[in-house]
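User: Predict Flagellar basal body rod protein FlgB's structure from this.
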Amino acid sequence: MLNSLVQSSQVSVLEKALSAASLRHKVISNNIANVNTPKFKKSEVSFENQLELAMSSEKAPIARTHERHLPVKSTGINDVEPMINTITTTSFRNDDNNVDIDSEMAGLAKNSIYYNAVADRINKYFSNLKSVINGGK
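Assistant:
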């Protein structure tokens, strides 16, 4: 029973969110480090949209109404992974670099707040679990 509480879908989603935030921090830091590198193209991490799609598909799965219909693989929450996308369609300067330092710094601050909120939520989950195990003490 304890194993199922520690490996719940809520914990799984929060772990993936922490992993995505950590990866996003690395990607944004790399973008900032290359702000003056000619022809450098920034990257972004996508995760939240994929997670939202997976969560909505779990609520309303696609059903096959006929045996000849093609099977549809629904993406579950456990299959969602953060992805790095390189933005190649824009350029802010004559040297083809597309890193906007102000945007990257704002993204870094936003990501830090997001990471701390997710870490706080995981901490509260396990604190509540510990309280239950200790009989509310």
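Residues 2-47+82-133 form one domain.
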